[in-house]
Amino acid sequence: MFADNTKLWARVSSEADLKSLQHDLNKLVEWFNEWQLKFNPAKCKVMHIGRQLHSGTAAKYYMTNGATKEVQSVNEEKDLGVYFSSNLKYSKQYVKSAARARSVLGLIRQHFRRLDIVDFLVIYKTCETSYGKLYPGLVTAPSEGYSVS
Protein backbone atom coordinates (compact mmCIF):
# COMPACT_ATOMS: atom_id res chain seq x y z
CA MET A 1 0.00 0.00 0.00
CA PHE A 2 1.23 3.49 -0.85
CA ALA A 3 0.56 6.90 0.69
CA ASP A 4 -0.20 8.63 -2.60
CA ASN A 5 -2.00 11.98 -2.87
CA THR A 6 -1.56 12.87 0.79
CA LYS A 7 -1.84 16.62 1.42
CA LEU A 8 -0.62 18.64 4.38
CA TRP A 9 -1.59 22.30 4.55
CA ALA A 10 -0.90 25.05 7.05
CA ARG A 11 -0.88 28.81 7.20
CA VAL A 12 2.64 29.93 8.05
CA SER A 13 3.01 33.47 9.35
CA SER A 14 5.73 33.06 11.98
CA GLU A 15 8.77 30.96 12.87
CA ALA A 16 6.59 29.01 15.32
CA ASP A 17 4.27 28.10 12.41
CA LEU A 18 7.28 26.84 10.43
CA LYS A 19 8.29 24.58 13.31
CA SER A 20 4.71 23.42 13.78
CA LEU A 21 4.39 22.44 10.11
CA GLN A 22 7.71 20.55 10.24
CA HIS A 23 6.47 18.80 13.40
CA ASP A 24 3.23 17.83 11.61
CA LEU A 25 5.26 16.51 8.68
CA ASN A 26 7.37 14.41 11.07
CA LYS A 27 4.20 13.04 12.70
CA LEU A 28 2.81 12.16 9.27
CA VAL A 29 6.01 10.23 8.43
CA GLU A 30 5.74 8.39 11.77
CA TRP A 31 2.13 7.52 10.98
CA PHE A 32 3.15 6.19 7.53
CA ASN A 33 5.78 4.00 9.14
CA GLU A 34 3.46 2.79 11.91
CA TRP A 35 0.83 1.69 9.37
CA GLN A 36 3.52 0.34 6.99
CA LEU A 37 2.53 2.71 4.19
CA LYS A 38 5.26 3.28 1.65
CA PHE A 39 6.14 6.76 0.48
CA ASN A 40 8.92 8.20 -1.59
CA PRO A 41 10.39 11.45 -0.19
CA ALA A 42 11.80 12.22 -3.66
CA LYS A 43 8.22 12.53 -4.96
CA CYS A 44 7.13 14.82 -2.12
CA LYS A 45 6.86 18.54 -2.85
CA VAL A 46 6.09 21.77 -1.06
CA MET A 47 4.41 24.79 -2.63
CA HIS A 48 4.49 28.21 -1.00
CA ILE A 49 1.35 30.20 -1.80
CA GLY A 50 1.27 33.93 -1.10
CA ARG A 51 4.03 36.04 0.34
CA GLN A 52 6.97 34.35 2.01
CA LEU A 53 7.90 34.74 5.64
CA HIS A 54 11.48 35.78 4.81
CA SER A 55 11.68 37.92 1.70
CA GLY A 56 13.36 36.10 -1.17
CA THR A 57 13.85 32.78 0.64
CA ALA A 58 11.32 30.01 1.03
CA ALA A 59 11.15 27.86 4.14
CA LYS A 60 12.73 24.42 3.82
CA TYR A 61 11.13 21.23 5.09
CA TYR A 62 12.63 17.78 5.57
CA MET A 63 11.38 14.19 5.55
CA THR A 64 13.11 11.14 6.95
CA ASN A 65 12.73 7.71 5.42
CA GLY A 66 16.01 6.09 6.38
CA ALA A 67 17.92 9.24 5.46
CA THR A 68 16.83 12.86 5.90
CA LYS A 69 15.92 14.53 2.61
CA GLU A 70 14.87 18.11 1.86
CA VAL A 71 11.38 18.34 0.36
CA GLN A 72 11.53 19.84 -3.13
CA SER A 73 9.96 23.30 -3.48
CA VAL A 74 7.86 23.88 -6.62
CA ASN A 75 5.97 26.81 -8.16
CA GLU A 76 3.35 24.68 -9.89
CA GLU A 77 2.00 21.18 -9.54
CA LYS A 78 -0.54 18.99 -11.30
CA ASP A 79 -2.96 17.28 -8.92
CA LEU A 80 -5.83 15.09 -10.08
CA GLY A 81 -5.59 16.60 -13.57
CA VAL A 82 -5.64 20.23 -12.43
CA TYR A 83 -2.62 22.53 -12.48
CA PHE A 84 -2.02 24.65 -9.38
CA SER A 85 0.51 27.46 -9.18
CA SER A 86 1.99 29.39 -6.30
CA ASN A 87 0.41 32.60 -7.63
CA LEU A 88 -3.01 30.86 -7.91
CA LYS A 89 -3.40 31.73 -11.60
CA TYR A 90 -4.94 29.13 -13.89
CA SER A 91 -3.21 30.11 -17.14
CA LYS A 92 -1.38 26.77 -17.49
CA GLN A 93 -4.67 24.89 -16.99
CA TYR A 94 -6.25 26.90 -19.82
CA VAL A 95 -3.27 26.35 -22.13
CA LYS A 96 -3.28 22.58 -21.50
CA SER A 97 -7.07 22.35 -21.99
CA ALA A 98 -6.91 24.35 -25.23
CA ALA A 99 -4.04 22.17 -26.50
CA ARG A 100 -6.06 19.05 -25.79
CA ALA A 101 -9.06 20.51 -27.65
CA ARG A 102 -6.88 21.43 -30.64
CA SER A 103 -5.43 17.92 -30.64
CA VAL A 104 -8.91 16.37 -30.84
CA LEU A 105 -9.92 18.81 -33.56
CA GLY A 106 -6.75 17.94 -35.49
CA LEU A 107 -7.63 14.24 -35.33
CA ILE A 108 -11.15 14.96 -36.57
CA ARG A 109 -9.80 17.07 -39.44
CA GLN A 110 -7.24 14.41 -40.37
CA HIS A 111 -9.74 11.55 -40.56
CA PHE A 112 -12.92 13.29 -41.70
CA ARG A 113 -12.43 15.66 -44.62
CA ARG A 114 -16.05 16.70 -45.20
CA LEU A 115 -18.50 16.87 -42.35
CA ASP A 116 -21.82 18.52 -41.95
CA ILE A 117 -22.58 20.18 -38.64
CA VAL A 118 -24.57 17.24 -37.23
CA ASP A 119 -21.84 14.68 -37.94
CA PHE A 120 -19.14 17.01 -36.61
CA LEU A 121 -20.98 17.60 -33.34
CA VAL A 122 -21.53 13.86 -32.82
CA ILE A 123 -17.84 13.10 -33.38
CA TYR A 124 -16.63 16.06 -31.31
CA LYS A 125 -18.91 15.24 -28.37
CA THR A 126 -17.78 11.62 -28.48
CA CYS A 127 -14.14 12.70 -28.33
CA GLU A 128 -14.94 15.27 -25.66
CA THR A 129 -16.43 12.66 -23.34
CA SER A 130 -13.63 10.20 -24.15
CA TYR A 131 -10.81 12.61 -23.32
CA GLY A 132 -12.54 14.54 -20.53
CA LYS A 133 -14.07 17.96 -20.77
CA LEU A 134 -12.36 20.13 -23.35
CA TYR A 135 -11.93 23.85 -23.12
CA PRO A 136 -15.32 25.39 -23.98
CA GLY A 137 -15.59 28.06 -26.62
CA LEU A 138 -12.85 26.78 -28.93
CA VAL A 139 -15.23 25.30 -31.49
CA THR A 140 -17.87 27.28 -33.30
CA ALA A 141 -20.34 25.63 -35.58
CA PRO A 142 -21.28 27.70 -38.66
CA SER A 143 -24.04 26.59 -41.00
CA GLU A 144 -21.61 24.72 -43.30
CA GLY A 145 -18.80 22.52 -41.98
CA TYR A 146 -16.89 23.56 -38.88
CA SER A 147 -14.26 26.05 -37.86
CA VAL A 148 -11.77 26.34 -35.05
CA SER A 149 -11.49 29.68 -33.21
Summarize the structure.
This protein has helices at 15-34, 91-111, 117-131; strands spanning 45-47, 62-65, 67-70, 72-74, 76-79, 82-85, 139-140, 147-148. The chain is of the alpha+beta class and 149 residues long.
The biggest sheet amounts to: 2 strands, parallel
* Parts with pLDDT < 50 across at least 5 consecutive residues: 134-149
- Structural class, judged by helices and strands? alpha+beta
Approximately what portion of the residues adopt beta-strand conformation? Answer: 15-25%
Task: Output the number of helix runs.
Answer: 3
Cα-atom Rg, whole angstroms? Answer: 23 Å
Mean pLDDT: 78
What global shape is seen?
elongated
What series of H and E elements makes up the topology?
Answer: HEEEEEEHHEE
Lateral strand order in the biggest sheet:
1-4
For the termini, the CA-CA separation is 46 Å
How do the strands and helices of this protein lay out in sequence?
Blueprint: H1 15-34, E1 45-47, E2 62-65, E3 67-70, E4 72-74, E5 76-79, E6 82-85, H2 91-111, H3 117-131, E7 139-140, E8 147-148
Parallel strand pairs: 1-4
Antiparallel strand pairs: 2-3, 5-6, 7-8
Explain how this protein is built.
By secondary structure, the chain is an alpha+beta fold. The chain folds into two domains: 15-82, no CATH class; 91-148. 38% of the residues lie in helices and 17% in strands. The protein is built from three helices and eight strands. The protein has helices at residues 15-34, 91-111, 117-131, and strands at 45-47, 62-65, 67-70, 72-74, 76-79, 82-85, 139-140, 147-148. The strands form four sheets. The protein has a two-stranded parallel ribbon with strand order 1-4. A two-stranded antiparallel sheet has the order 2-3. Strand 5 (76-79) and strand 6 form a beta hairpin. The relative contact order is 0.10. Mean pLDDT is 78; it is low at 134-149.
